[in-house]
Design brief:
There is one protein chain. The protein is mostly helical and 188 residues long. It contains 5 helices and no strands. The chain is flat.
């Protein structure tokens, strides 16, 4: 009798463990499916751009000529930004990091990021110059999908009416502190 009870207990324990493992595996699989199903798109390649905009031969040649120069400038800006980040890391590794030097390096990195954004926007404007009027709307739509949030609540983290994470307000400011309240509406 005691032996049967132990056997049932072992079988129940095994079934419970296998069930738990199965549930965790299923939930993990579902999480991966959800993540892979999101609208996470990488950079728009020229071929994708040509197909989406239905470019003619002359337009393709122009973009093919512009793209390598743009890629070279972007790669150079990224290398410089990586070097500046490495310098920042070296400052942080020191015994007593100098806060003003760290702030200066952060400003340099921010300025470099700004130059990178400017390069991308200049390239987009140059591309837009070579499009026909009927291609402009499709181009703007493609750029918006690539640069703006997939939730469709506008560009940037603060543009949505509910803040960057779907909650009310303006989100967190520097250092995790609450950001400024929205400005009061203008009175007519």
């Amino acid at each position: 009798m005691k032996r049967n009870w132990l056997l049932y207990l072992v079988i129940f324990s095994l079934a419970l463990n296998f069930g738990t493992i199965g549930v965790f595996a299923y939930l993990r699989y579902q999480d991966r499916q959800t993540v892979s199903g999101k609208e996470t798109q990488g950079p728009l390649g020229l071929r994708d751009l040509w197909l989406a905009l239905n470019l003619d031969k002359e337009q393709r040649q122009t973009l093919r000529r512009l793209a390598p120069e743009h890629r070279h400038r972007v790669a150079q800006l990224r290398r410089e930004m990586t070097a500046k980040r490495q310098e920042l890391f070296e400052l942080l590794k020191g015994e007593k990091p100098d806060w003003s030097a760290i702030q200066g390096k952060i400003r340099e990195i921010s300025a470099q990021q700004g130059r990178l954004e400017e390069e991308v926007v200049q390239f987009l404007l140059e591309c837009k110059k070579h499009l026909k009027p009927e291609q402009h709307a499709a181009f703007v739509s493609l750029v918006e999908r690539r640069l703006c949030s997939p939730r469709g609540d506008g560009c940037g983290p603060m543009m949505g009416p509910r803040g960057p994470h779907g909650g009310p307000g303006w989100g967190r400011g520097p250092g995790g502190r609450p950001g400024p309240p929205p400005p009061p509406p203008d009175k007519p």
